[in-house]
Amino acid sequence: MTSVRVIEEGPDQGDVPTRRITVTVNGRRSVVECEPRLLLAHLLRQGLRLTGTHLGCDTTNCGACTVLVDDRPVKSCTMLAVQADGRAVTTVEGLASPSGLHPLQEGFKEEHGLQCGFCTSGMLMAAKALLAENPDPTEDEVRWALSGNLCRCTGYQNIVKSVLWAAAKLRSDEPEPEA
Ligand code: FES
Ligand code: FES
User: Fold this and answer.
1) Ligand 1 mean position to 20 CA, how many Å?
2) Which of 43, 69, 94 is a domain's end point?
């Protein structure tokens, strides 16, 4: 009879290693234990139940999953959750304030910037990043900033008008510089 002695055993197949990360989402800090392969989009939607971030393609094409990571637009279907460790994430749920809708949300309402709404959260987040850098964009600049975000319904015209509406509103809300 052959004798066998196992010296060391690797992890069981069901025993997936995890990492502990800390991520601040919409101002709220969460400590999360997750698999290294978990996508940021899945952490947001399934882990933190922030389902306003949509998944349209999972392949970096549609932009429906766009969120801000440290204020920069990122397609959360192509970023690992562990890459967000120690960083600040803003999703569409973080746009409005207790005093009301964000001007971008108002703009989409005023200018009919959505139909089915599937692309809207990604559009809003990409537009937010644009207006933070460029408060007075041209129509072409808006189109360029949103070029990674696809919409199957609107033909884009009203989305661009919505962002320009919001840009004007944000500028008019700015306090006058002191004389
Ligand atoms: S779901 Fe991320 S780009 Fe389409
Ligand atoms: S409003 Fe339907 S995909 Fe854009």
Assistant:
1) 25
2) 94
* Residue 119, ligand 2, Cβ within 6 A: yes
Convert the pLDDT of each residue in 113-138 to its tens digit.
Answer: 999 999 999 999 999 999 999 999 99
Ligand 2 atom 4: residue of nearest CA: 151
Do 116 and 153 touch, CB atoms closer than 8 A? yes
Does residue 11 belong to any structural domain of this protein?
no
Q: Phi, psi at residue 161, to the nearest 5°?
A: -60, -35
Tell me how far apart the alpha carbons of residues 177 and 135 are, in angstroms, rounded to a whole number.
16
Structural domain boundaries, residue 75? 19-94
Give the ligand at the shortest distance from the Cα of 116. Answer: 2
Q: What is the pLDDT of residues 86-113, one digit of tens each?
A: 999 999 999 999 999 999 999 999 999 9
Radius of gyration of the chain (CA): 21
Tell whether 124 and 145 lie within a shared domain: yes
* In the predicted structure, residue 1 carries a pLDDT above the cut 70: no
Name the phi and psi angles at 130, rounded to 5. -60, -50
In 3D space, the residue among 119, 67, 116, 112 whose CA is nearest the CA of residue 94 turns out to be: 67
Q: How far is CA 106 from the centre of its chain?
A: 19
The pTM (predicted TM-score) of the whole model is: 0.90
